[in-house]
Structure formats: structure tokens, C-alpha cells
Design goal:
The chain is built from 19 helices and 18 strands. The chain has 583 residues and is an alpha+beta fold. The strands form two sheets. Strands 3, 4, 5, 6, 11, 12, 13, 14, 15 and 16 form a ten-stranded mixed beta sheet that branches. Strands 1, 2, 7, 8, 9, 10, 17 and 18 form an eight-stranded mixed beta sheet that branches.
């Protein structure tokens, strides 16, 4: 992956491919990887940075979706559980077993309302689910894991045992249910791995470019615009895949046909720096249901606590922000679950929000809208090109949904599938040492000029791709520690900037590292990191300063209370929040 401004040039010099994918979220990237592995000439464009739209606002979980059983979505849950188990094997560097505990305050609640919701396809007022209903769901959930299962079965405990294990829980609870799903502790880095795999598999016939938008149709061609230079090119493809998530209808309108396929809902999260709250989780996710039927999770991650999520109707074009009302909702629910631990806004270090790519759903309550996916097909400007629009899709099933889209594209092209992706390791998951002995050997083999502790840190951060990062650090005589970001070094960040499609500083801070997530992006940190990568990016001092200012504004874009300390930066934050960068 090259940082020189030639990616749009590569598209313009050869303005055709068998398949053009519009949208660089996880579903578009996974489809790109799948088709590249089939030897298809494929191109992908993303108007913002990769995984900067809906895919950047996940709950950092790979899960079967136990609550979707109540909707009758048995096919989706079974597929999701199977994909969870598969990702635990294919991407063990980022996907790991997650112990999840549900505090339960009643025994029979929901027994009557759940069947009615099932029969009415999600209609009706949500109600709290009691112990009996949750137990029935977990028995069914476990049954889906029997084939190739790799996580333990669920357990139920009464109040005394529950409080012995997690003493900070609300003492008014009646039971807890504990089951296992999986964490996705760095979704953006997994997406980078998927992109890298696709480019490597399709050397010469797989091209990907961020900051390139599909803005119009010219007959059966798609007009692409470089966001950096403003240049345009009409690009031809036999198949155009619309993988723009919640912006699918807007993209179809850009391509000449108005559709009403989508009905996305907004989900927000907050990240807290709160050691007492972190310790109270006991290293597990707390999955709690409010009396109104909405779900909240409290989740230890990266030394912080992630709290989310909401599920609110959203009109595309409105600002995508985590509102003060949502923050109040989260703080109230934390108090319900862990009443003895004081938590307030001063503990918040990061907010983020996104719109789920859900189908249009009429009057169905947002929390009960189907999370399944489907593919809509139509011609583009005549019989020579076909548009495949992906409706729905989620992180857990990205490989399976990409396989479905790729199979439809292959059918249009009258080409066979050459290989399955079901057993192909992803990125740094290839050869990842999963046992303590193998891990110690890998670290010893790569601890040449770097300490074993530093090598271990890089292995945890990148998987086996860390070997390339280590080599880059060793080859850079100017490598130095960063006081503003002590977990990273200058050579490490320069390597990411050179090799991972970084265009702006916020790409690095928000989607190539976890610095934004943990609340480490200050004015000083942004300036220091901009200066560190400036040689790799070709930035002069003025450009580096502008990038630092832009990056801080982007990091705070989901926080409507942030004013940046200056009117200009506040306006930039407002613009960033409303920019449909996921299209």
C-alpha cells in the first residue's frame, strides 16, 4: 500500500474493471478481498477513509446476536454464531473469546410479549426479558455452537454467587446469566488487514483508493472524483457493487436511480477512563437490558470502559453525533447496573456514533429491525452493467455477506468460484501464535534490536504482520519514543503512514491506531505525531499544522458539546460530523 498520490492515477490510467465496488466499509473491503482471491479484476473506491462510516462505529463485538432469536431470525443467528467461531480461528489476533454476563432482575418478564413480537415481526412495545426467557434463548444459542463451537456453554447463577463474582453489581438482582461471545478489540485494524489481503491476492488486478467518490453515472459508466485533486474519470465495469451501507439510497441516486431500500438507525457509544469501573467489570462484558427493552453494554477495552449503544431512528443528512440525551441515558444505566460506582461526564474521553445499514422497516421498533442482509440487483444505464446493492450486513457476518455478494457478481460475469474464504486466515492472523509456548518462540525470534516487551506489544497490536513493522523500525535510524503517545514510536507511525493508505492525520489517529479511542489525542499529541510522519507524507510545517488541527476536530466530531477552543475549529467539527464519509 503506497502513500504516493497515485491511487486515483491507477484508476484513471486503466478506467475499467470487471467489478467496481463503491464503499470501503468492512462489507465492501471483504467483497474486494473475496473477488481478488477469485482472480477477478476488481476496483474499490471510498469517498472518505476506509472504515470511516458505519463500520467505524461498532460495539467492538463479534456475536451471534442472542436477542435476534426473539425476532425469529434463526438463520441469521446460526450464521452469525458460525462466523464468530470461524473468526476466532481466522483472526485470533483481533477476535478473542469474550465472557458476557447479563444481570437479571425478574423471572418471568417478557414470557408473553416475546411470542407476540415474534408473531408480529417485531411490532409492539419492548419489555424487559426475565430469567426464564433468557435461559431459553441461551439454550438455543448454545445449540448453534455445537458444530465447530469454540466457546464454553452458558451458566446461570443466583444472587449470592453472582455478587460473590461481581460484588459491585446491583444487589437487587435476582440472577445472572453468563455466556461467551467474542470481542473485536480493534475493528479498524482488522479492516486494514482485509484490504491488505485483497491487494496482495490481486496484485495487478485489485486496486483500491480512498478519498475517491462515485458522484454520477455516464451511461453505463460510473464517474469517479478524486477528493484530493478534484479530477474525474468515467469508469467502466460489468458489475458495480453498492456497499455504501446506510448511504445506499444516496449512492443509487448518484448513479441515476432513486431507491428506498434503507432505514438506518443511529447507535452511539462513550468511552470512559475510570479505573474503578474497569475493575468492577471483572474483565467481562456486562450486557444489560433497560426496562424499555433497549440494550446497553459495559465493556472493558484497551484499558478503558466502552458503554453503548442506542438504537434511534435517523434521517441521513442529519448530524451523526452522540447527543447529551444519549450520554444521560448511558450514565443512568451504568448507575442501575453498578449503583455504588460514581460515574459522570468528566470520565468520558471519547464519543462516537454511526448509522446502522438496516433495511427500511416501517413501524417496527428499531431494536427489532432485522439485522440480516440481502442483495438487490438492477441495470446501470442499459444491459452492459449491473448494480448489486447490499442491504444490511454487520461486522460479525462480513465474510459471509461478502461471499454472497461475490457469488452474485461471479454469476453475472459467468465465472466460477476458484476458492472459498471459509478457511483463509486474515492478515496478521496467519501463523499467529495462540499457545504460550508458540508466542514465546515468536517473540524470541523477532527480538533482535527491539526488546522482548516491545516485540510482544507489537505482536498484540498487529498480529504476525508485526514482523513488517519490526523490520521498518529497525531500519529507521531516526526512530524515537513519543512523549505524547508513549505506546508508539515515530518509526512505527511513519511505517503505517507509508504503507496503509493514510491521506490525513485523522486516518492514522482514528483508524490505524487506537489513540483516539483511548482519549490520547490532544493538541500536543496531534502536533507531535503530525511532525513525526511529515517526512513520510511529504508535508511541510504548515501542512502538518493544518493536519493536526483537522485531526483534533475530527476526533471530537461526534461530541456536540466540543467547541475546540476556537470558532474555526468548532465549525470544522460541525462539518466533519455531517460529512457523509461512509458513502
Amino acid at each position: 500500500m503506497d502513500t504516493e498520490p497515485t491511487r486515483f492515477d491507477a484508476l484513471a490510467e486503466r478506467p475499467y474493471a470487471d467489478v467496481l465496488i463503491v464503499g470501503g466499509g468492512i462489507n465492501g473491503l471483504a467483497t474486494f478481498r473475496d473477488l481478488a482471491l477469485q482472480g477477478v479484476d476488481v476496483a474499490l473506491v471510498e469517498r472518505g477513509d476506509f472504515v470511516s462510516g458505519a463500520s467505524s462505529a461498532s460495539s467492538h463485538m463479534i456475536h451471534g446476536g442472542i436477542r435476534y432469536l426473539e425476532n425469529g431470525e434463526f438463520r441469521l443467528v446460526k450464521e452469525a454464531v458460525q462466523e464468530r467461531n470461524r473468526l476466532l480461528r481466522l483472526a485470533p489476533h483481533y477476535v478473542r473469546p469474550l465472557r458476557t454476563t447479563i444481570p437479571i432482575f425478574s423471572t418471568f418478564s417478557g414470557i408473553l410479549s416475546a411470542p407476540l413480537r415474534f408473531l408480529r415481526h417485531g411490532a409492539g412495545r419492548p419489555r424487559e426479558r426475565g430469567a426464564l426467557l433468557i435461559r431459553l434463548g441461551l439454550v438455543l444459542y448454545d445449540s448453534f455452537s455445537r458444530a465447530g463451537g469454540s466457546v464454553p456453554r452458558h451458566r446461570f447463577h443466583g444472587r449470592r454467587r453472582s455478587l460473590a463474582e461481581l460484588p459491585a453489581l446491583n444487589p437487587e438482582l435476582s440472577y445472572t446469566a453468563t455466556y461467551w461471545d467474542a470481542s473485536l478489540h480493534d475493528p479498524e485494524r482488522l479492516a486494514v488487514d482485509v484490504l491488505r489481503d485483497g491487494e496482495a491476492a490481486g496484485a495487478g488486478h485489485a486496486r483500491a483508493a480512498n478519498y475517491v467518490a462515485a458522484v454520477d453515472a455516464a451511461g453505463s459508466r460510473v464517474v469517479l472524483r478524486d477528493a484530493v485533486t478534484g479530477r474525474e474519470v468515467a469508469f467502466a465495469a460489468s458489475v458495480v457493487v453498492n456497499a455504501t451501507g446506510p448511504w445506499t439510497d444516496e449512492t443509487n441516486a448518484d448513479l441515476g436511480e432513486r431507491t428506498r431500500l434503507m432505514g438506518g438507525t443511529k447507535g452511539s457509544h462513550i468511552v470512559l477512563d475510570h479505573p474503578e469501573l474497569l475493575a468492577a467489570t471483572g474483565g467481562r462484558e456486562l450486557f444489560f437490558e433497560n426496562a424499555d427493552g433497549r440494550i446497553v453494554l459495559i465493556y472493558p477495552l484497551e484499558g478503558r470502559v466502552l458503554v453503548g449503544t442506542t438504537d434511534l431512528e435517523h434521517t441521513m443528512g442529519d448530524p451523526i453525533v452522540c447527543t447529551e440525551e444519549e450520554v444521560d441515558y448511558f450514565l443512568d444505566l451504568i448507575h442501575q447496573v453498578l449503583p455504588a460506582i460514581p460515574v459522570d461526564r468528566s470520565h468520558i474521553v471519547y464519543r462516537f456514533a454511526g448509522v446502522r445499514p438496516l433495511p427500511g422497516h416501517g413501524h417496527v421498533t428499531p431494536g427489532f429491525v432485522s439485522r440480516d442482509y440481502r442483495i438487490e440487483e438492477r441495470p446501470l444505464g442499459g444491459p452492459d452493467a449491473t448494480v448489486l446493492s447490499l442491504v444490511g450486513g454487520k461486522w460479525t457476518t462480513f465474510r459471509a455477506s461478502a461471499e454472497s455478494v461475490a457469488d452474485r457478481a461471479l454469476a453475472v460475469l459467468a465465472r466460477p468460484r476458484l476458492r472459498s474464504t471459509k478457511d483463509v486466515p486474515i492478515g496478521g492472523g496467519k501463523g499467529y501464535p495462540v499457545t504460550p509456548r508458540d508466542r514465546a518462540r515468536w517473540i524470541a525470534d523477532h527480538a533482535r534490536r527491539l526488546s522482548a516487551a516491545r516485540v510482544a506489544e507489537l505482536l498484540d497490536r498487529y498480529g504476525t504482520v508485526a514482523a513488517d513493522v519490526i523490520a521498518a523500525i529497525e531500519a529507521d535510524p531516526a526512530d524515537a519514543a513519543l512523549a505524547a503517545a508513549p505506546a508508539y514510536s515515530t518509526a512505527e507511525l511513519r511505517h503505517l503512514a507509508r504503507t496503509e493508505h493514510v491521506v490525513h492525520l485523522d486516518d492514522l489517529l482514528m483508524r490505524r491506531t487506537s489513540l483516539a479511542f483511548v482519549g490520547a489525542v490532544t493538541d500536543a499529541a496531534a502536533a507531535a505525531i503530525a511532525a513525526a510522519i511529515a517526512p513520510a507524507m511529504g508535508w511541510d510545517a504548515a501542512t502538518a499544522a493544518a493536519e493536526a488541527s483537522r485531526a483534533v476536530a475530527r476526533v471530537h466530531a461526534a461530541d456536540p458539546t466540543w467547541n475546540g477552543g476556537a470558532t474555526g475549529r468548532a465549525k470544522e467539527a460541525d462539518r466533519a460530523a455531517t460529512d457523509p464519509i461512509g458513502r
